[in-house]
Design brief:
Layout: H1 9-20, H2 24-37, E1 42-48, E2 54-59, H3 99-105, E3 108-114, E4 121-127, E5 130-137, E6 142-148, H4 155-159, H5 164-181, E7 186-191, E8 194-198, H6 205-213, H7 215-218, E9 221-228, E10 231-238, E11 250-254, E12 257-259, H8 262-270, E13 284-290, E14 295-296, E15 307-308, H9 311-328, H10 343-349, H11 401-404, H12 413-418, E16 454-460, E17 464-469, E18 472-477, H13 478-492, E19 499-508, H14 512-520, H15 522-527, E20 531-536, E21 539-546, H16 554-567, H17 573-588, H18 598-609, E22 623-627, H19 628-634
The structure holds adenosine-5'-diphosphate (ADP) and magnesium ion.
Magnesium ion (MG) binds near residues 30, 33, 94 and 99.
Length: about 650
């Protein structure tokens, strides 16, 4: 073994630098954090070649005293904490005093800074962490850090860098997060001379969201506001119809710091259960404020992971706030008339063209005449189990007059879950250190549909119920609405349907995989009303079916269930059961293209108008809206 010896400070610095500075985006993150900690109102980030050749961060913050400029670049040199006790309540973004030392040790760096009270500023140059010189310089108040030739002296690290485009994109993402974290700061991002981001810094989170995500996406977000014991959450979440294929639009912040948190992600996503489409993820910009001593930010060098004192509290505060936000959203997607939806409405309907809502089956003949009520009177459901048991959750609120009607689906459940009143304000102690984010702007489209009288004006294509209400017309997809009503009812009843024995068994041959899957889950099938047996030769015999199922739907229902069993093999029982209920709810629903009795249409409309039903279980909307103004524009009665 070679002798043991302490590493030279230079080598130790390089090792430490590797932990903080992984890539250009890490430099952008650290320098912008410093700017925010310095109280800047505006921060400009400029990069060239993905940040590899140049990163310049300019702020109008407090600046650095001439005699402290050199100190700032020493390891463990910080103005933000002094004693070990300060570690228990960290209110700044930085505190380790390592970033500047790390960045300087792997680049050529120039600092230019001036405090408001100093007549002259300071210029300081470093190379590989070694100070080249310091002199007085005329400059505006604030600080500019110019970082050139990142990793020039660590060729091993250099090799790991991706293409400029990828590194540049990561830098932009870092600035976007800061912009969403601090709407009170105006951010500008310039890549290779081109401005790619500009936020107003007006303190409104919605303005920052608009600037970062763009107009179309921003329009699909609704405000969130909620509080729990010693904590508060606010921000925006996407409507179920505006969910995306990735989690890339999920931004969580704790006391102004961007974080990744499993509890918060789960709290968000579970609020969308049965509302979003499979494989799509909600977006959010959620700010959680907790008491400083309730969160440990010191668990990771780049401080992206945080530990909460009360993970459960965090989960339920976020979860119920999001549920309430989704429940409170009364807006409906707008129908497009000849491509002329209003600007505000266009954003919403991007994801749901009218023709996408349901595909009417071709034949308009109805195989079975419905006796009304087709499925017998629906029992009043017992309260559904809350996703997270909270002792403080009050009983379900009294049902509204509209919901009192003996609907086929008394779908008040999701409402009961979301109407948990928000508890009184958070602790009296000042939680956030920086200026709090101003309250979110009023909801994007807030209309109280319950107030206005409405009536059914007709039915289109045996598929869409036309409801006139005040100055607008709603087109309700009767199948989607009914499917949702069924689903909520089945779920509330912990669904166990009447089974109907077939006079002679129905035999069919599914694909070999489906055959195996169905046989593996006979018990589960039994619970949803199917009695199935192996018929030999790859075939199955179906002896009984749920009472509402059409004979013609047996095979399609079972193969659909098989598909779900295959897909959800890895997920929890509850999810799998919900998936199967989706199928059953769909099969039990009145079909688009078929004639329905007026009472059935009335019931579906009732549920939609009372706000009980908004999305089908797959997240498709059940109703779209058309305003009188839009129609009048079409007929040139208005411009
Ligand atoms: P930390 O942020 O953890 O304190 P850094 O190495 O990032 O450590 O910065 C060291 C110190 O330099 C900070 O504590 C702060 O006093 C000063 N500083 C860094 N950047 C700026 C800036 N943009 N404006 C004013 N002071 C700054
Ligand atoms: Mg710092």
């Amino acid at each position: 073994m070679p002798h043991i010896a302490q590493l030279s400070p230079h080598v130790a610095d390089l090792i430490a630098a590797g932990e903080v500075v992984e890539r250009p985006a890490s430099v952008v993150k650290e320098l912008t954090e410093n700017a925010i900690d310095a109280g800047a109102h505006s921060v400009t980030v400029e990069i060239q070649n993905g940040g590899m050749t140049l990163i310049r961060v300019t702020d109008d913050g407090c600046g650095i005293a001439p005699e402290e400029c050199g100190t700032a670049f020493l390891r463990h040199a910080t103005s933000k904490i002094r004693t070990e006790h300060d570690l228990e309540a960290i209110g700044t973004l930085g505190f380790r005093g390592e970033a500047l030392a790390a960045v300087a040790s792997v680049s050529r760096l120039e600092l230019l800074t001036r405090r408001e009270t100093d007549p002259l500023g300071t210029a300081l140059g470093l190379e590989g962490g070694v100070v080249l010189g310091q002199e007085e310089a005329g400059c505006p108040q604030g600080t500019t850090m110019l970082v050139r030739d990142l990793f020039y002296n660590t060729p091993a690290r250099l090799k790991f860098m991706k293409k400029d485009a990828a590194e540049g994109a990561a830098c932009l993402a870092a600035v976007q997060r800061q912009a969403l974290a601090h709407p009170e700061v105006a951010f500008k991002f310039i890549r290779d001379g081109k401005q790619e981001l500009l936020t107003p810094g007006d303190g409104r989170l919605h303005s920052a969201l608009y600037a970062v995500l763009g107009r179309d996406l921003a329009l699909g977000f609704v405000p969130v506001e909620g509080s729990g014991e010693d904590m508060a959450v606010s921000g925006f979440v996407s409507l179920p119809t505006c969910c995306r294929g990735t989690r890339g639009y999920q931004f969580f912040f704790v006391n102004g710091r961007y974080v990744k948190s499993k509890s918060m992600t789960a709290a968000l996503e579970q609020a969308y259960a049965n509302q979003r489409m499979v494989g799509k993820f909600p977006g959010c910009v959620l700010h959680l404020t907790v008491k400083l001593n309730q969160v440990d930010v010191n668990v990771h060098p780049t401080k992206q992971e945080v530990k909460f004192g009360a993970e459960r509290q965090v989960f339920s505060t976020v979860h119920y706030a999001v549920l309430a936000a989704l429940g409170a959203d009364k807006s409906r997607p707008a129908a497009t008339v000849g491509g002329l939806a209003s600007a505000a409405e266009q954003g919403r309907q991007t994801f749901l063209p009218l023709h996408d809502v349901a595909t009417p089956k071709a034949p308009v003949s109805r195989p079975k005449t419905p006796e009304l009520p087709a499925r017998g009177p629906a029992p009043v459901p017992p309260p559904a189990p809350a996703p997270v048991p909270t002792p403080s959750r009050p009983a379900a609120p009294p049902r509204t007059a509209a919901a009192e009607k003996p609907l086929n689906a008394p779908a008040t459940l999701p409402k009961a879950e979301v109407q948990r009143p928000v508890e009184p304000a958070v602790s009296a102690e000042p939680i956030p250190v920086r200026e709090p984010v101003s309250p979110p702007p009023p909801p994007l489209l807030e209309e109280d549909v319950q107030e206005l009288p409405w009536h059914i004006a007709g039915e289109l294509f045996h598929t869409y119920i036309m409801v006139e209400q005040g100055d607008k017309v709603l087109l309700i997809d009767k199948h989607a609405a009914h499917e949702r009503m069924n689903f909520d009812r089945m779920r509330a009843e912990d669904y166990s349907p009447m089974s109907q024995i077939l006079l002679s068994p129905v035999v069919f041959t599914p694909a070999p995989e489906e055959h195996a899957l169905l046989l593996e889950h006979l018990e589960e099938l039994d619970r949803v009303g199917f009695e199935v047996e192996d018929f030999g030769g790859g075939s199955l015999a179906v002896r009984s079916i749920p009472d509402y199922l059409e004979m013609g739907d047996i095979e399609s229902a079972l193969t659909e269930i098989a598909g779900k069993l295959a897909l959800t093999g890895a997920t929890g029982l509850r999810e799998r059961r919900d998936e199967i209920l989706h199928t059953m709810a769909c099969k039990a629903a009145i079909k688009g293209g078929w004639q329905s009795a007026p009472q059935e249409l009335e019931r579906a409309a009732q549920a939609v108008m009372a706000g009980e039903v908004k999305y089908c279980p797959h997240g498709r909307p059940v109703a779209v809206e058309l305003t009188r103004t839009e129609l009048e524009k079409q007929f040139k009665r208005r411009t």
